[in-house]
Amino acid sequence: MVYGPTMTDTILIERRHDRIAELRLNRPEARNALSRELIGALDEAVTRLGKDPGIHVIVIFADGTAFCAGHDLREIRAARAGPDEGRLFFEELMAACSDLMRRIVLCPKPVIAGVAGIATAAGCQLVASCDLAVASTEAGFATPGVDIGLFCSTPMVALTRNVGRKAAMEMLLTGDPVSAARALELGLVNRVVDADRLEDETLALAARIAAKSPRTLRIGKRAFYEQAEMPLAEAYAHTARVMVANLLEQDAKEGIGAFLDKRPPSWEPLS
């Protein structure tokens, strides 16, 4: 299913594959740069799909040769013509982009990026904000704001929650591109596949996850990000409480029973 007037004049294409929602960035002429409009469209879609009981996993792809080249620099330059030299627009843009990245993390459904081509600056941030990422062998990643006098400070938030500090600082300070293979070593992506297999492999990964209990996925994703910000003792106390609550859910009862009875489980639909 495609949302929007046509395939060619909507900046975000949406399709459904059983329990999987596919979102496809569709600004290939702008290397899928995150304009204010595209940020809003992505935010709306992730929010809506996060509440859709028929969707278990969200996948983000992009049309064209680039996954996402970051913020739209032409839009930013145009905003400087305003009486405040763009300050209000810049504040709203950064707030909206930060809200989108948080929305992906807080979304109760797993979100997977399927990356073909480059993902730079806020595009790299988008990949790092997703729960999982599959990259083609031709993908590349960079935070090159330093090259144009604009340090990638907001992308840094997501980047440093995925890769080690030294590696993150090297990317941020040099702006040098990182290959898909190196991104895999750093933990920025989960796997690298041949370019012609990217969509199939990404959707296959999504399908494996979508087959799990949607209630359990929601519980687990939320707990993952919550405990990651806690000291060790607090994290164990919190996740112990989560485990107890999870054990009392019907899907845990059903899943354990199905495993012991050697039969496929039957998961409760989300309300």
TrEMBL record:
It holds the Pfam family ECH_1. SUPFAM superfamilies: ClpP/crotonase (SSF52096). InterPro entries: ClpP/crotonase-like_dom_sf, Enoyl-CoA_hydra/iso, Enoyl-CoA_hydra_C, Mitochondrial_ECH-domain. Keywords: Fatty acid metabolism, Lipid metabolism, Transit peptide. One of its GO terms (biological process) is fatty acid metabolic process. Belongs to the enoyl-CoA hydratase/isomerase family. This is Enoyl-CoA hydratase domain-containing protein 3, mitochondrial. It comes from Silicimonas algicola.
